[in-house]
Amino acid sequence: MRGRMLRNHAFRALPALVAASSLLLAWEIYCRASGISETTLPAPSQVLLQAWLNREALWANTVPTLRATLLGFSLSLVLAFLLSMAIDFSALMRRALFPIFIASQTLPLVAIAPLVVLWFGFGLLPKILLVALVTFFPMLVALAEGYASTENEVEDLLASMGASRWKRFLLARLPSALPYFFAGLRISITYAVVAAIFAEYAGAAKGLGIYMLNAKNNFRPDLVLAAVLVSSLLTLLLFSATWAVQRLAAPWIDSTSGRRP
Amino acid sequence: MTEPLLRLDRISLSYSEIDVLQDISLDVLPGEFVSILGPSGAGKSTIFKLLTGAANAGSGEIQFAGKPLIATDRPFAFMPQRDALMPWRRIIDNTTLGLQVQGMRRKEARKRVAPLFKEFGLGGFEQHYPQALSGGMRQRAALLRTVVQDRPVLLLDEPFGALDALTRNQMQIWLEAMWLKHRWTIILITHDVREAVMLSDRIHLLSPRPARVERTIAVPLPRARFSHPTARAEAAAIETSILDFLLSPQIREPEGLLP
C-alpha cells in the first residue's frame, strides 16, 4: 500500500520534474553555446557549484533571515488573533480598525522598508516589523472570514444551551475559523521570507538580503542566484511545516482537498 | 385531568411587518409526544425560537408548569434541523457539548454520556469524528447530545428531514422505541404527515403563514405502532384524512382570496 502510494506521488510529480529539468537544461545549453559572460548570466551548474563552495557563508546569512521571518511572523500571528477577536466582538472596533488595516496593505514596501530601517536601525527590529506588516493582513482576513463561516445552526444550538457570547466564540467560532486560518497561514508564510529579505536589502549587517546586495555589487550573479535558491528552499520548508502543524493541531480538516468535511 | 406542562396562549409574532404567527394556542402534557405539523415556511421553527429565547413574541403568553416561562430557566433541549455536529469534536465530545456549556468538566461529562452510547447505537464510535459516521448515526448522536442535557422537554426540529427514506423509517422506529422506554416530553416539528401520525399522541396542525393552529388531532393508536398488527392500517386512514384537510381549498388559499 505504502509503496504504491509513494510511486503514485512520484508519478504525479513527474510532469513538474520534467518541465523544470528541461528549463534548467535549456538555460545550461544556452550559457555554454552562446559564450555569454559568467558575470551576466551564470549557468545553473555554476550556481550550484558556487552555492556548495560558499555554503558556510550562505548558512551564516540564512540564520538571521530565518530568525527575522519567524519572529516577525509570530508577532503578526499574535496581533492578527487579538485584533480579529476585537473586531469579531465589537462592530465599533471593526468600523474603526478595518480601514486602517486595508490602508496598511497599500503601503509600497520599496518606500517603507528604507524608512523603517532609518527609524529602527540595522538590527532585528525593523525586519520583524516589516515581516509583520506584510503578513498581518492576510492572517486577519482569514480569521475574520473563518469566524463568519460558523454555521448558524451551531450558534443557535449553543444559544439554546445558554452559552455566553464568549463561550460561543471559544466553542464554535474559533474552531470554525481553523481551516481558514491554515489557508491564510500558507499564503502569508510565502510572503514572510520575501519580506525579511527585502528588509535586509534596505539595510542589515547579516542576512540573505544583504548577502544578495553585496554579491550583486561585486558582479557575482552566481552568488545572488545561490542565495535566491536558499531563500526559495526556506519558503518551501516553512510552507510544508504549515501542513505538519495543521495535521497535528486540527487533524479533522480534510487536508487532501483542503475543503471542510 | 393532567395539567399541561407547556402552554402557548394566543402567541402572535411578526418579522419586519410580515405576520409569522397568529394567535397560536397549543399545549403539551407531561410525557406526551406532540407534533407540530405544517407546510414549509409556515413558521414552525419560529415556535422553537420563541421557546429557546432566540425570538420574542409580539403578544401572548407562554406558560411552563403553570407559570410564565422565564427564558433563563431553559427547560428545553433543542435539536436543530441539520445535526449541527461539530467536525472538530469527536462524537463523545459532541454529545457532551450541553453539559460542558453548563460548566461540567470534560472528564465528568464524558463519564456521564459514555454508558448511553450503546443504547443509541453508537457503541465503539466514541472517538470517531462526525465525518466518519452515516447520516442515521449522526442524527442519533445529535439526539444523544439533546437528551443528556436532562431538560424537561425535548424540541426536535425536523430531525430526520435530511435522511434518505429508508434510514428515516429506521430512525422513526428507533425513536418510538426510545420514547416508550424513557417517556420524554417531546415536541416534534415536521412536514411529514406519516411521521407525525406514526410517532405522536397529538398533532397540532398549522396553516400556511401566518400560522394558526388549524386543528389538533389526537392519535389514539396502540404502541409500538410500527410493529403493531392493526396500527399501521389505522394510521394510514388518519394520514389520509389529514392530507385531505391540508389539501382542501380553504387551507391552501391565502386568506382574502376566497369569497
TrEMBL record, chain B:
Q: Which InterPro entries match?
A: AAA+_ATPase (IPR003593), ABC_transporter-like_ATP-bd (IPR003439), ABC_transporter-like_CS (IPR017871), ABC_transporter_ATP-bind (IPR050166), P-loop_NTPase (IPR027417)
Identify the SMART domains for this entry.
AAA
Q: Which domain of life is it from?
A: Bacteria
Question: Which keywords appear in this protein's UniProt record, sorted alphabetically?
Answer: ATP-binding, Nucleotide-binding, Transport
Instruction: Give all residue intervals belonging to the ABC transporter domain.
Output: 6-233
Q: Membrane-spanning residues where?
A: none
**Listed GO MF terms:** ATP binding; ATP hydrolysis activity
The similarity annotation says: Belongs to the ABC transporter superfamily.
Protein name (record): ABC-type nitrate/sulfonate/bicarbonate transport system ATPase subunit
Origin species? Rhizobium wenxiniae
